[in-house]
């Protein structure tokens, strides 16, 4: 697991992000617009991937795969407002060879505001046909997730 | 069904919209970005509401309610590309007193690209507490939907 | 002007678009978010291009060029609100071999709300080096603009 | 200058932000979509405001003013790509009683990619009429800017 080794001696990157709500995120109802959480979730998923030592570029160059969103589900529990400080953290719920489920929770302090569940499929970068998630990639993602729990 | 009567003598507004994919909708993968369909679905839902003779303004002023997104689900069947001409059409799947399910289908010609399912709850505009969907509003929405089938 | 001939027998596409402001366009201040006008302007520019008989695809395949935004300027005169019906219309202010200026006006009825000025440069699709705007393309754009005046 | 005192004993918040380009920021041309820089600039401006000890909420509650975008100008020097790490930093170029100019530079390492210039006007929160920028607010903004230079 070279990826882990590479990170062993340095501060481990945290897989969560913090975002302070700006006008661009909100709508005339005074809350964060619902589709905006889907973008927040991409940030959090990417951050989990980076924390695991991977990037879209390395997935493509080393493994020939790209990840594509197949299904989105978002539950809105409570609204967020302008200047709220949100914490966003993604984790892997499960993974099969060609599909993985990424769950992102948006919180304000301890309060859960929204849960965004995204199913990703792996595609071959050239043919765009269904491919397998690289094994070491999933292992690294799960490893980062456990280290945080 | 006063709403229908009011529209009888004029061209009936269609509840669907057409959208030609622009750069703003796409991402570096070459396809429409997944969260963008959630925005397309808002356009289609609003158009259904307008076709039924309602608006956010009239819902608030005549009935004291606003609609808020409670849950989002989107299935991505096939990708859309820059300059694709998409047709987007919303319909009501079911409605309960305080919650309604709006399903929007995005098609390119006859091909179904994505299905976006949004659950809306009605809130009292002032108190932001749960409210009932106005009966004539739901009747008009269902009526517009049947006229199109 | 083959482009015009091709359109002669059919309804001439209008170079303007109408857009009814949805929640996605607005922010917590209650108005349309300023960056959203920049997206509206892309729609209007694309529509002008289509009305002139061109597309991004035809520019690339027939002329080997793509257009890239080099400079943006937007003046906000008056705010737009949720459900306002906006008309957006683009025109060419001037063009030089490799750069063109596209001006889009956003109006609500007769009232000018915003003016968005975009300078585009033409790039060679393969090399991404500066290229010339195809002559017939600019002629067709100017022709559509005059027909509307 | 209470704001400064309050921050004296702790790590001074930096007025810049770092953003790693995600799919949501990019378009089918493979670069960051031009309107997206306008949103990045809002983040950087807000961060400058927070570093100066202010917020939209405190401007409204303590001074009765809100800031509204009056004019946008963006120069695109070089494109940014997916996963590029951008640094965004805002500064005040000048301020008059009711209008201020905020300049944000987007860089990748030492390379300047885009310059976004935003003119803000202060409005009375209730009447939405032109107001003055609060003096201590501008002083704190300029102070933060100098501390960084």
Order of helices and strands of chain A: HEHHEEEEH
Largest interface: A-B, 19 and 19 residues
Give the name of the CATH architecture of chain A. Roll
CATH class of chain A: Alpha Beta
Count of β-strands of chain A = 5
CATH topology of chain A: Thiol Ester Dehydrase, Chain A
Task: Give a description of the structure.
Chains A, B, C, D: It comes from plant metagenome. Chains A, B, C, D: This is 4-hydroxybenzoyl-CoA thioesterase family active site. Chains A, B, C, D: Keywords: Hydrolase. Chains A, B, C, D: One of its GO terms (molecular function) is hydrolase activity. The structure is a homotetramer of 149-residue chains. With 149 residues, chain A is α+β, with helices and mostly antiparallel strands. The first copy, chain A, has helices at residues 2-8, 34-51, 56-63, 135-148; strands spanning 16-20, 65-76, 85-95, 99-108, 111-124. Chain A has one domain (14-148): Thiol Ester Dehydrase, Chain A (Roll). Chains in contact: A-B, A-C, A-D, B-C, B-D, C-D. Chains C and D meet through helix 2 and strand 2 of C and helix 2 and strand 2 of D. Strand 2 (65-76) of chain A pairs antiparallel with strand 2 of chain B, so a sheet runs across the interface.
